[in-house]
Every structure is written in structure tokens, then in C-alpha cells.
Design goal:
about 375 residues, alpha+beta, Creatine Kinase, Chain A, domain 2, 15 helices, about 15% strand, EC 6.3.2.2
Length: about 375
């Protein structure tokens, strides 16, 4: 590994009709147009989605440049195909179901999981941080569990869905947890125990394959990384960079705690689930549950300040501390994706305002 862990990001995007805002089934043709410009877009479960994957980055400045490039090329490919690219956790306006992308694997998922698969359009963001090995990834995952609800709140970006304010900052998170292999991960004592649980889910039919290990933090199946998958796709590149910096800082801090042999306090599953719900409901501008001390509801920005203090040595060692503080101040003042969606909706209760806000943020 490098002197500090590298980072990479996958962002999922929605393709919509520019006039109506309804999702459009054009991921294959948009991907072909992007490929002609040297960018490979991954096809997601439903035909209204594409995914970008950054190169491995050593610094957040490198990551910011790469994210900006990928979003612009994907947006231009969508526009050339008569669609609009949106960085939103869920479609603001939708049909009753989406066509499944026509691959053998996706067809099997659609057949086995029914409406859970068909009613998708769910767009998340996955942050990969390099770790020494799978055992380290599992131990780091255990230590990240108390912080996952805060990371969810920071990037919440799915307040408006089906032409309505859902009452949640991240309705995506609520829908996503319908999958039997999604949501907050269990605590695992070892990589062997992790593998045994995955085998059980496969053997019982709760997962089709290991790619459906959808827990919000997991050892990557393809890279020597720990993968944090808890967040909606953030509204802006700046928010994605902030999320990635926080995730890397948390991973580096967890690795340092492991090296020191620091005790990991127990975390009850019911407390973690409650914190997830609270983060999805309130988002950045409400309250979150303090999982490290009081288990009380505390203003989210206060707990985030505590998280940044906790991981400050890691952030300073990679030169991200000032950027993180500056960006947290900015989104506290101007809002993250969910707050911007809700403000746009409240102006006239017109979905066109939400779509325009999301489109502007995507390329901001």
C-alpha cells in the first residue's frame, strides 16, 4: 500500500426524460456513447441507471478531478441520447416499475425478488479504501458500524419521490433495506465468520450470488479494499469528495485502533437500526442518535463535529482536515441534496423545480 490508503468511488446515476422527469430505459445506448469518449459506464439493475467508476486516487484533489470528468462525460452522453443525467438517490417522479436490464443475472434477480427488484431506480455511492487484507477489512467494518448513520445523513439525497415529499431525507435508505442482504452489517469475529454468513444467505436463496452482499460496509469482492455503501449518490461532486474523505478518515482511524489493540465497545443491533432510521428521517438538518456514548438524540451537525474530531489525526495526515471542515460548513449553510430537493419542492410543489435543482447540482 501507499504511505496512506488510496480511495476510489462508484457513483450511480438516474437517466430521465428532460421534459417529464420520468426515468427512461436508455442505459445501454448512453453507455455506448460514453464508451466512444473513453469512459466505461456500468449498467445497473434497471435500465434507467448507469454507474461511473473512478480510477484509484491518492488524494482528494485527484478524486475531485476524476469525479467531475466522469459526471460531465456521462451527462453529455445522456444528452446526446435524448436523456438527462441526475445525481439523485431516487427518481423524483416514476412509473410503477422499471424494466430490468436485459442480462442473464439481472433477469434472474428480477424473477426471484419480484417487485423489490422491479421498483428500483435506487442510486447509491460506494467508497473503496485500501486495506492490507480481508481480515483487516472485516475488523475495520466492525469499527465503522457506529458511524454509518452519520455518513448516511451527510449524503442524504432522496427526499422527493413519486411527486411527493416523503418526509425522509433518505427514502432510498428505507427502500434499500427491503433486500434481505442489505442494511447495517452484523458484527463479525473474522473473515471466516463473514464467509459463513454469506454462504448461508446463498444456500437459502436470500442472495443469488456474492455480488448481492449489499451490506453498507463490506470487504470488496474484487479489490483489496473495504467498501462503504451506505450513502445516497450525493448531489454534487463536492459532497462526494467530502463523503470519501470522511470514509477514508474513518478507515484509517479504525486501522490505527486495531494496531493499538483498542477495545471495541459493544453496539446493540436495535440501537444501530434506530440510528439508521433517525438518520434517514432527519438527515443533516435534524437529529441523530449518539451511538458512542449517550444513545440520546443529538443535533446531527454536533455529532458530525465529534466524528471529525475523532478522525482528525487521519484527516490531517493526508491533508484533508481543512477541506472537510470547510465543506461541512458550506453544506450546513446551503444544504445537502435532500435539503435542496425539499426547498425546491416547497416553492410550488412542482416536480419541475426539483428536477432543475437536481440537474444543476449534478454538474455543479
Amino acid at each position: 500500500m501507499a504511505s496512506h490508503p488510496t480511495v476510489g468511488v462508484e457513483e450511480e446515476f438516474l437517466l430521465v426524460d428532460p421534459a417529464s422527469g420520468e426515468p427512461v430505459a436508455r442505459n445501454a445506448s448512453v453507455a455506448r456513447r460514453a464508451e466512444a469518449r473513453g469512459v466505461e459506464l456500468q449498467l445497473e439493475l434497471t435500465t434507467c441507471q448507469v454507474e461511473t467508476t473512478t480510477e484509484v486516487a491518492a488524494t482528494t484533489d485527484e478524486l475531485r478531478s476524476e469525479l467531475t470528468r466522469l459526471r460531465h462525460i456521462a451527462a453529455e452522453a445522456a444528452e446526446a441520447d435524448g436523456a438527462r443525467l441526475l445525481a439523485v438517490g431516487l427518481p423524483p417522479t416514476v412509473p410503477h416499475e422499471f424494466p430490468i436490464t436485459d442480462t442473464s443475472r439481472y433477469r434472474k434477480i428480477g424473477e426471484r425478488f419480484g417487485m423489490i427488484a422491479h421498483e428500483q431506480g435506487i442510486c447509491g455511492c460506494h467508497v473503496h479504501v485500501a486495506v492490507p487484507d480481508r481480515e483487516a477489512a472485516v475488523r475495520v467494518s466492525n469499527r465503522l458500524r457506529p458511524w454509518l448513520p452519520l455518513l448516511l445523513a451527510v449524503a442524504a439525497n432522496s427526499a422527493v419521490y413519486r411527486n411527493a415529499d416523503t418526509g425522509y431525507a433518505s427514502w432510498r435508505s428505507i427502500l434499500w433495506q427491503r433486500w434481505p442482504s442489505a442494511g447495517p452489517p452484523p458484527h463479525f469475529e473474522s473473515a471466516d465468520e463473514y464467509d459463513a454468513v454469506v454462504r448461508m444467505l446463498l444456500n437459502t436463496g436470500a442472495m443469488l450470488d456474492e455480488g448481492m452482499t449489499y451490506w453498507d460496509v463490506r470487504p470488496s469482492a474484487n479489490f483489496p479494499t473495504v467498501e462503504v455503501r451506505v450513502a445516497d449518490v450525493p448531489a454534487t461532486v463536492a459532497e462526494t469528495v467530502l463523503l470519501a474523505a470522511l470514509v477514508r478518515g474513518c478507515v484509517m482511524t479504525a486501522l490505527a485502533e486495531e494496531r493499538r489493540g483498542d477495545t471495541l465497545p459493544p453496539l446493540a443491533d436495535h440501537a444501530l437500526r434506530a440510528a439508521y432510521w433517525k438518520a434517514a428521517r432527519d438527515g443533516l438538518d435534524g437529529h441523530a442518535i449518539d451511538l458512542t456514548e449517550s444513545h440520546a438524540a443529538v443535533p446531527t451537525v454536533q455529532l458530525l463535529d465529534g466524528l471529525v474530531d475523532h478522525i482528525r489525526p487521519a484527516l490531517e495526515s493526508v491533508g484533508d482536515y481543512d477541506m472537510v471542515r470547510s465543506e461541512m460548513t458550506r453544506i450546513a449553510e446551503h444544504g445537502n441534496g435532500a435539503m435542496r430537493q425539499r426547498r425546491a419542492w416547497q416553492r410550488r410543489h412542482d416536480i419541475a423545480d426539483v428536477l432543475a435543482e437536481a440537474a444543476a447540482a449534478t454538474l455543479e
